[in-house]
From TrEMBL:
Domain Apple positions: 341-429
Protein name: non-specific serine/threonine protein kinase
Presence of keyword Kinase: yes
Organism of origin: Oryza glaberrima
GO molecular function annotations of the record: ATP binding; protein serine/threonine kinase activity
Domain Protein kinase, residue spans: 511-664
Position of the signal peptide: 1-20
Transmembrane segments: 444-462
Length: 664
């Protein structure tokens, strides 16, 4: 029995030397073969070698529960240490981590931190802890952290760890790619916040930009990337203009392991662990095709960013390739006369929606939208501008973001299907703007002049017939600003706004293809921005619809009376000769089918969101079928006829009362 007891005690002593906790202390250094395991078992820290030879060792952090060894941080990436019996990672009494081959002393150190903070009691109580986030931190006895590994990232960012972007911070974090697949030393590609502006993220190849994310527009969540599972990865911006901004990946509880990695080829990948195949699955990567920095040349743009198909280069509206072979990658030039305050007529601006704004902008602060427009308009060298409100900025700070561009526009892009981006206001020659206005004026003035006598002759009759009706309200400077959708059921006595054709043409850039949202047998739908910055959807009915003006007008008035938060609002209309236009509220998330039948976007529809959509659709139908003063039977309920607002709340469209007036 005594012999068995001796063996048992011996095994306990041996096992006690095999580290399996999450802490490093001054009294307990880490040696090759030892590991720290985070409290939840998610990550491990220890020595490792990347080649068949075990002579070169690194200290790093990797996923502990994944069979494929995947490193997220390496301490001595540029200085591997030779394996020997004296190699140790030591926590000193000054709260520094030291990797050396001589017990942490003197010239044997190959890597160390520089905290130099002595805790009360001569270092007693100082610990280095590996957290379940993958962060390796040095803590003083009072709980304060004096050093964090993720303040010094290598090539990977894992969820819920902030990454500094702001040039106002003391130091900018940069992700640095590995030199090669088995070489963790610093490679050529790096990624971080722009050193001259905290509004964008850039990948560099050495000192040259390789890829650039669109300038930040102020949204807290500025990107949602779908995985091939039922999970999604949010990209968020935290902080304010005074303290600086930081980037963070956020996932829901229960999600599989995910990571963002800049690999040695310069590709930024978002990956999730697939337990069925025991492998990492790449569900999003950048850049692709012409999305690389300035691939489309000056005044060209990369069309289709975020699309499944490879995006292609095109020239901005009003520009043609400079190369006779139409190679847009060499840049574009204006196909009309130069802009620049020439000819006495003021230049105009063309609205280009869903754009990734160009690089090399000038950030002008403390400006309203109109002041931003004037800032560009009065400078003859200004070629474009963009405007946004930084919602994350502190209320006491300037929240405006006016960007202006002088000279060439470089690294411009357009997002697929309007999914992302912002309006870019491109300067166009005054003659082009004036010609558009003159053409519109002629179309309006001539018919009005021809019918003036008839109008004057019948004015007495019109007044008599309307003598008992209340006079119409005077419309405000900006159409539709009186509309309110905050109530469950709005008033059915709604004043329908009539919009002149000139305003519609200006809002839609003369029905430009840039603004096209969709089309079908009914006609086409365009995005428009009216005076005052009001975004609308304009449906241009097919001229062969066969519906008369009075029939069209009566139908529009009836439908405008239907007011419910789960119905798309008809804001107004425009009738001019054979043009019949309907003005709706604009819903940026488009229709439900765009989510359900898209392999990536459908994963944004978690069950709470789906249930919210189901209830909203039911409320809208109940109002139409039962609660409305006008009894309406929908007759065409399908996913393409359910639109989603920014909060993913549904709004029914395309119900019928006589002729079909609603878009698909």
């Amino acid at each position: 029995m005594a012999a068995y007891l001796a063996v048992f005690v011996f095994l306990l002593l041996v096992c006690s030397s095999c580290r399996a906790d999450d802490k490093l202390t001054p009294a307990r250094p880490l040696s090759p073969g030892d590991e720290l395991i985070s409290s939840g078992g998610v990550f491990a820290l220890g020595f490792f070698s990347l080649t068949n030879s075990t002579s070169d060792l690194y200290v790093g952090v990797w996923y502990n529960q994944i069979p494929v060894r995947t490193y997220v941080w390496v301490a001595n990436r540029n200085t591997p240490i030779k394996k020997s019996s004296s190699v140790k990672l030591v926590l000193t009494n000054d709260s520094d981590l030291v990797l050396s081959d001589s017990n942490g002393g003197g010239g044997g150190a190959v890597w160390m931190t520089a905290n130099n903070v002595t805790a009360a009691g001569g270092g007693a109580g100082v610990t280095a802890v590996l957290l379940d986030s993958g962060n390796f931190v040095v803590r003083l006895p009072n709980g304060s952290e004096v050093w964090r590994s993720f303040d010094h990232p290598t090539d990977t960012i894992v969820p819920n760890v902030s990454f500094s972007l702001s040039y106002m911070a003391n130091s900018l974090d940069r992700i640095v790619a590995w030199r090669g697949p088995n070489d963790p030393s610093a490679g050529d590609f790096t990624m971080g916040g722009d050193s001259s502006s905290d509004l964008q993220i850039v990948i560099w190849n050495g000192t040259r930009p390789y890829w650039r994310r669109a300038a930040w527009t102020g949204a807290s969540i500025f990107g949602v990337i779908q995985t091939n599972t039922s999970f999604k990865l949010y990209q968020t911006i935290d902080g304010d203009m005074a303290d600086g901004y930081s980037f963070k990946l956020t996932v829901a509880d229960g999600s599989p392991p995910m990571r963002m990695t800049l690999d040695y080829t310069g590709e930024l990948t978002f990956q999730s662990w697939d337990g069925n195949t025991s492998s990492w699955t790449v569900f999003s990567r950048f850049p692709t095709g012409c999305d690389k920095y300035a691939s489309c040349g000056p005044f060209g743009y990369c069309d289709g960013i975020g699309a499944t198909a490879t995006p292609t280069c095109k020239c901005l509206d009003g520009f043609v390739p400079v190369d006779s072979s139409h190679d847009v990658s060499r840049g574009c030039r204006r196909k009309e006369e130069e802009v620049g305050c020439v000819g006495g007529g003021g230049d105009g601006f063309l609205t280009l929606p869903s754009m990734r704004t160009p690089d090399k902008f000038l950030y002008v602060r403390n400006r309203s939208f109109d002041q931003c427009t004037a800032e560009c308009s009065r400078n003859c060298s200004c070629t474009a501008y963009a405007y946004a409100i930084l919602n994350n900025a502190d209320a006491k700070e300037d929240r405006s973001r006016c960007l202006v561009w002088m000279g060439e526009l470089v690294d411009t892009g357009k997002f697929k299907d309007g999914a992302g981006g912002e309006n870019l206001y491109l300067r166009i020659p005054g003659s082009r703007a004036n010609n558009k206005m003159k053409s519109t004026v002629l179309k309006i003035v001539l018919p009005v002049a021809a019918g003036l006598l008839l109008i004057l002759g019948g004015i007495c009759l019109v007044r008599k017939s309307r003598g008992n009706q209340p006079s119409k309200k005077v419309q405000s400077k900006y159409p539709f600003q009186h509309m309110n959708d905050s109530n469950e059921v709005g008033s059915e006595n709604v004043e329908l706004s009539s919009v002149d054709l000139d305003s519609v043409l200006t809002a839609t850039n003369n029905f430009s293809d840039y603004n096209l949202l969709g089309k079908g047998g009914f006609g086409k739908v365009y995005k428009g921005v009216l005076e005052g910055g009001i975004e609308v959807a304009v449906k241009r009915l097919s001229k062969g619809s066969g519906q008369g003006v009075e029939e069209f007008r009566n139908e529009v008035v009836l439908i405008a009376k239907l007011q419910h938060r789960n119905l798309v609002r008809l804001l107004g209309c425009c009738i001019h000769e054979d043009e019949k236009l309907l003005i709706y509220e604009y819903l940026p998330n488009r229709s439900l089918d765009a989510f359900l039948f898209d392999a990536n976007r459908k994963n944004t529809l978690d069950w709470p969101t789906r249930f919210k959509i189901i209830k909203g659709v039911a409320r809208g139908l109940l109002y139409l079928h039962q609660d409305s003063r006008l009894t309406i039977i929908h007759r065409d309920l399908k996913t393409s006829n359910i639109l989603l607002d920014t909060e993913m709340s549904p709004k029914n469209i395309r119900f019928r009362h006589g002729k079909d007036l609603w878009w698909k």
